[in-house]
Amino acid sequence: MIKGYTWKLINSQRRIKELYSELNSFIQLIPDGIVIISQDFKILWMNTVVEKLLDKKIHEGINMHCYEIFYKKNVICEVCPVKKAFENVCLVEETITYLSGSIFNIRAVPIFDEYHKVSKVMVLIRDVTKQKKNRGTINSSAEDRSSSFVSQWNCS
Fold first, then answer.
1. How far apart are CA 109 and CA 59, in angstroms?
2. Residue ranges per structural domain of the chain
3. Beta carbons of 95 and 103 less than 8 angstroms apart
4. CA angle 103, 70, 147 (to 5 degrees)
5. Which of 5, 31, 148, 156 would suit a FRET pair with 125, their CA atoms being 20 to 30 Å apart?
6. Confidence at residue 149, expressed as pLDDT on a 0 to 100 scale
7. How far is Cα 113 from Cα 117, in angstroms, rounded to an integer?
8. By C-alpha distance, which of 9, 17, 10, 73 is closest to 41?
9. pLDDT, tens digit, for every residue of 53-94?
10. Which of these CATH numbers, 3.30.450.20, 3.60.15.10, 1.10.630.10, 3.20.20.10, describes 32-154?
11. Which helix (H) or strand (E) holds 22?
12. C-alpha angle with apex 111: 105 to 113, nearest 5 degrees?
C-alpha cells in the first residue's frame, strides 16, 4: 500500500517538474522583460530578457532591491510604478526615458494572495526606443531624458 502512494507521489513530483519546465519555456519566449517583485521591493524572479536589458546575469539580480538593480540607488525611486501598484491595487503603466536615452514602457501588475491582498507585483518591461525614434518623438535634450514620465492608471 505504501509503495503505491510513494509511486503516485514520485509521478506527481515528476509531472510538476515537467509542467514547471514547460511553463518556464513559454515565459522565456515572451519578448518583454518580466520581473516579480516582493513587498520589500526585492526581485524574486526575472526572465532572460531582463538579463539582456540590464547586461547582468539573472542570479546577480535575485534578492536585490529593484531600485538597486535598475537605477543603482539606495532608496525607492520617486516615480515608482511598483510602489503605486502596491498602494493603489491596480495596474500602473509608465513610459520612462532613462539618462542613456533608452525608453521603456513599464507595466506594474499587482499579484494577489488568497486573502485578496497584493503580495507581489509583476513588472513587464518593453523597450520602445526604436518605435519612438521611428516616430521622431525622441528629444535629444538631457533634461527631457531624465524627466520624461507618462503615467496611465488602470484602476477600475
1. 23
2. 1-30, 32-154
3. yes
4. 45
5. 156
6. 41
7. 6
8. 73
9. 777 787 888 999 998 888 788 999 888 999 999 999 999 999
10. 3.30.450.20
11. helix 2-29
12. 175
Type of residue at 114: E
What contacts 86, CB < 8 A, 6 or more positions away?
Answer: 39, 110, 118, 121
**pTM for this one?**
0.74
**DSSP result, 50-115:** HHHHHTS-HHHHTTSBHHHHHH--SS--SS-HHHHHHHH-SEEEEEEE-TTS-EEEEEEEEEE-TT
In angstroms, the Cα distances linking 115 to 61, 88, 112, 142 are 29, 16, 8, 45
> In Å, what is the CA distance from 129 to each residue of 12, 33, 45, 92?
45, 14, 25, 20
